[in-house]
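pinned: reference chain
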Amino acid sequence: MTATVYYILVESTTQGWALYNALRAADCACRIAPVPRGLQACCGMAVLVESDAIEGVRAALAAPEMPGYVDIVQMENQYNPKRDVYC
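pinned: its structure tokens
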């Protein structure tokens, strides 16, 4: 996993799914993720993009037919592969 990730914040789950589907249709690597604590988001859902794919995503977001979004926030990756492993 990369050290930096980008969260694309959305206003609603409907907007989030529309954005996710449009980015995937544009061959952009992304996934749905919960918004990390401390970030402002209305619905708790975000589109997660890793640092190696952000330039392509930004280019796709510039297209006029792309669904809207609130903000793109850069954060250090918080993924912990040992989370919830008890053995």
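why pinned: The longest strand covers residues 4-9. The helical segments are 13-25, 54-61.
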